[in-house]
Amino acid sequence: MTAMTTIERPVELKGTSIRSARAIERRRLLLWLVPPLAWFTVFMLIPYATLLYTSLGHVDDMRFIPGLSLDNFVRVFTVDPYLSVILKSARIGLMTAVFSSIVAYPLAFYLAFHVRTQRLKFLIYLLVIVPWWASYLVKAYAWKTILGSGGILNVGMQNLGLVHEPVRLFLYNEFSVDMTLTYIFTPFAVLSIYAQLERVPTSLIEAARNLGADGWMIFRRIILPISVPGVVAGAIITFSLAFGDFVAPVLVGGPDSVMISNVVINLLGVAFDWPMAAAIGLVIITLGLLLISASGWLEEKTQTRF
Amino acid sequence: MTTGIELRNLRKLFEGHGHASWAVDGVDMTIGAGKFVTLLGPSGCGKTTTLRMIAGLEMPTSGQIFRDGQDITDQPVTDRDMRMVFQDFALFPNMTIEDNVAFGLRVKSKKGKYTEPQIQQRVAEFLDLVHLKDHAHKKPHQLSGGQKQRVSLARALVTDPKVVLFDEPLGSLDANLRKIMQLELIRLHRELGKTFIYVTHDQDEAMAMSDAIAVMSQGKVMQFGTPREIYDRPANRYVASFIGHAHIVDATVDSKQADSLSVRLRNGDRVGLRGKADAAPGSAVGLMLRAEDLAFADAATDTIGGRVVDSLYRGEYVEYVVALNGNSGVVHVHARTDLPPVAHGSAVALKVNPAKAHVVVH
After folding, report:
1. Helical H segments across B158-236, by residue range
2. CATH number, span B4-237
3. Which value does ipTM take for this structure?
4. Which pLDDT tens digit goes with each residue over B268-310?
5. Which of A210, A227, A301 to mutate to test the interface with B (most CBs of B within 10 A)?
6. Distance (Å) from the C-alpha of residue B53 to the closest C-alpha of chain A?
7. What residues of chain B lie within 8 A of the CB of A217, using their CB?
8. Between A210, A214, A221, which is nearest B83 by CB?
9. Mutate to test the interface with A, among B107, B151, B167 (most CBs of A within 10 A)
């Protein structure tokens, strides 16, 4: 029996040492998790919790009274003009997404399939990005000089004899907001569509031509279906950016073209109704999450696997 | 009028980054209708560029391409009715296998030629031909490499072209699958009777499948002939060493008869061989010696002497590396595995099969 114990003991010892090694490993792993958890807590958890906490209270005599009321959320959907402004912002976002995609597609297509040298490709790429070096405000103001009564569009049309007096329809309305936002956010759509078109191997186009397909058929049957996820991704980016914009409506929008971000700014800075602003913010964030999930699903669904 | 494809002094200049080079440099070739012809050579020899020019995917810098006697040099790729099978398969990833195969039947130029039920029936027929009828509704990414290549083949054949072009179609498959596909291609060529023009760098593949092989190097055709001609009677040193890894030993023509000749190695050993050579007595030639045409011999007459420097067991045979006496060169010898092994360093005499030995002048 003594022989047995001498055999058992080292085995047991070995077992415990393995266990303790694992424990050390586990502790080390936790240590590695601290920075990301801290980051998440400071920059995500606390702000969102604060937002939620604020939205559940109300303001009385310029003072924040904490509470647990859903009144603010009910007001978002029932009190004018919150819901209609959200819907209008969504409409502007949608128009921007559609226009950006239409403007961006041909350029991305040209860049992906017709530019042969790397140098020219880089140059065009640079030209697409370069407006981002200029201030957003400057670009928005630029559209005033294009669309305004004395703007290049009106002067041009007058000189051509198309109209006799300046057309006022171009500026200070929803259309001018759409135009300005489209101009500003199109580069995102270009890059997104281009990235997807770049994935189409040359041999696919050669194979299609070899089988007797003309350019239109190659585009409709092969290139367009493969590029759909890029268009969707670009549209989501431009929609989101346009939806939350507050500068374009102020500069080129008309008196009624207030967007939801302007409403939030007013609630914060003028009306001091922080809880209401927080509630609107949370509604927008939720809508945004839904939209991103839906588009992620759509992108996945339409993504071509090579 | 010749039927088939004829290439006349075909050239292609590639320009890039400040320098230009002839990718294809004067190719003349006649490919008979219904033949299986392979363009063989290392990468960069111009074989793929030649194929792409035949297909119309590349425009020749100069020269002409004829098809059944008609100049098609400037005919657009879409009108050539030659189908290409690509190395990377080039299947349309967004379409089902069925739609991939049907693509060539639905193009504008074929409009009205087939009704939709006819297309479906024809596609089913050709998917059956390549043993893929159960995969009709899958997408390309769901298939294996070999299956993808068979779809690509069906897509090319379904439109009933007279000429099918292959650009290293088996290059991305593993060795076993490659052997199976080789047999498949031979079968299809025999059954369908179409002209197959095939590009590969794999000489075994070329030898096994082709009616004729064009060995290419640096944009030129080094030799165009049957696999047997190319293997047994290579036109020059390049072809001899590229095909079957022949060893070439420097020699001088000793004497010459109508259908035989005798050459002398640098060390004085003499080798007699049958056949003709385009070389006068006294001129320097290369003696091509293949491992399977050499054997160890006892007699010292009519043999070449050397010393074993290495041996490799290959399973089927033992490969000996023999350094010829007098620094005359190195040859490999295949010996049966049941013979007693020859020790490294031992002196040996080698007998040359006179019917298979061959001299190359260039």
Report:
1. 175-192, 203-209, 227-232
2. 3.40.50.300
3. 0.84
4. 888 888 877 777 888 888 888 888 888 888 866 778 889 999 9
5. A210
6. 12
7. 107-108
8. A210
9. B107
How far is B328 from B271, CA to CA, in rounded Å?
A: 13
How close does chain A come to B78, measured CA to CA in Å? 4
Residues in chain A: 306
- B105 to chain A: nearest residue by CA? A211
The residue ranges of every structural domain in chain B are: 4-237, 247-360
Q: Taking Cα atoms as reference points, which of B270, B334, B264, B251 lies closest to residue B296? A: B334
Decide if B104 touches A, using CB distance below 8 A. yes
CATH classification code of A79-302: 1.10.3720.10
Query: pLDDT category, A281, cuts 50, 70, 90?
Result: very high
Q: Give A161-187 pLDDT, tens digit per residue.
A: 888 888 777 788 888 899 999 999 999
Annotation: CATH topology of B247-360: OB fold (Dihydrolipoamide Acetyltransferase, E2P) (2.40.50)
- In angstroms, the separation between the Cα of residue B168 and the nearest Cα of chain A is 13
Is B84 close to A208, i.e. CB distance below 8 A? no
Q: How far is A121 from chain B (nearest CA, A)?
A: 16
What is the pairing mode between strands B270-274 and B220-225?
Answer: unpaired
- Express each pLDDT in A129-149 by its tens digit: 888 888 888 888 888 888 887
List phi, psi (to 5°) of A198.
Answer: -60, -25
Chain B CB contacts of A222 below 8 Å: 92, 94
> pLDDT at residue B135 above 60?
yes
Domain boundaries defined on chain A: 2-55, 79-302
pLDDT of amino acid A5: 47
- Contact state of B107 with A211 under an 8 Å Cβ cutoff: yes
Burial of A198-219, coded b for 16+ CB within 10 Å and e otherwise, reads eebeebbbbbbbbbbbeeebbb
